[in-house]
Amino acid sequence: MADEAGAAVLIETSVGDIVIDLYTKDCPNTTRNFLKLCKVYYYNLNAFFNVSNNFLAQVGDPQATGKGGTSIEGVLNGGNTLFTPEFRPNLKHTNRGTVSMAVSKDKNGQSVCASQFFITLADKIDYLDNRHTPFGQVVEGFDTLDKLNEVYVDGEGRPYQDVRIRHVVVLEDPFDDPKGLVVPENPPVTPPDASTGLVRIASDEDLQEEDEEVKEQRRRDHAASASALTLEMVGDLPFAEIRPPENILFVCKLNPVTRDEDLELIFSRFGTILSCEVIRDKNDGSSLCYAFIEFDKREAAEMAYFKMQNVLVDDRRIFVDFSQSVSKLHGAWVGGQGKKGRKERGMESRGAGAARHADMVFDLEDVDRKRRRSVSPARRGGRDYDRERDHRSRDDYRDSRRDDGRDSRRGSYRDSRDSRDSRDSRDYQDYRDHRDHRDHRDYSSRRR
């Protein structure tokens, strides 16, 4: 059993970070040599040159050949200086993540080691016991070991895409620096094996090629995410990952004469509509030629989106898309929930319907008042508009307008409402063109 670790290092690799505790009491010479090499950035940008699945990952030779490397004395004094390993009966390769010094034989057959070390990628590798010198244990970063264990390698065990030590941070070092040791001001920026000419895929190279359009979309998504996070921090959004509802459609390019009830009648054939509001100018109540339609189900919104694209409504071809606005969600969050929230937003007196649509129009009461004034006496036919709106259901009110014969263009449209409910948008366009006395044959050829 190894003694308590008295030193630790953080190794940052291209596939993740690893924290290693070192056995300074059992292996003082080995750990001292390792720590001082780390301190002078000897291992920075070294490549893992031998990776065996469920066995080990070896590194520590700057030339990545498995034949080089030197101890700290060799770094300070020059040459390939070696030292004698410290074999301990209680130190074995029992657990995955065991850090061990690679041991070789010199010309005299003596065991020596220098700077190369490896990390085991499996438990109970007894074959390595008494052959190599364990001097530490990985305590954090086992997910990095999993990634190391899964890399693709060539016939010699070197990964096709370089796995490199990017940086080493000495967390604890109980040993004094040897005489003459000078820590470089900056770590190296060029891999030590760059001069060998061995071509490998760079450790930071993306293997999945993407066109410029995909990259641009990723940049936009990143910018949008950053903006949303900023809005969340300043309190303008309830949370950064908020998404627009999928049951609300945005309709634009409307004719200014198109009203809420007309648009709702047209789209109601696809499902139950919770709200339908043409957005109007706050000052004069005129249509801004776009609207929001909220369905009770997402499927109904999808069907309306596909069927109503470029359909003629009041002689204008409309454009339909899914709404990107989160104003409804945001308004509910800012104003609170339930009655209390509606009171704070001044919507309690307007009823549930007004509260539901409050974020879609500019000052509902003012717009409604101006809309009533804009209806001519001839179109009202001397009727009390407010009484009709307040005391009749929507269908009764429309029937009465149809019976009076006022606004014949809209009335004829509503007369055919029941027969048109089973038609798709193409039949609906044909019907509108036929109603306007257009030649059906010319229309069909234009469609083709």
From TrEMBL:
Residues 203-222, 333-354, 371-448 are annotated as: Disordered. Residues 381-448 have a biased composition (Basic and acidic residues). It is an enzyme of class 5 (isomerase). It comes from the Eukaryota. Pfam families: Pro_isomerase, RRM_1. Residues 204-214 have a biased composition (Acidic residues). The keyword Nucleus applies. Its EC number is 5.2.1.8. SMART domains: RRM. It is found in: Nucleus. Belongs to the cyclophilin-type PPIase family. PPIL4 subfamily. This is Peptidyl-prolyl cis-trans isomerase. It comes from Wallemia hederae. The lineage of its organism: Eukaryota, Fungi, Dikarya, Basidiomycota, Wallemiomycotina.
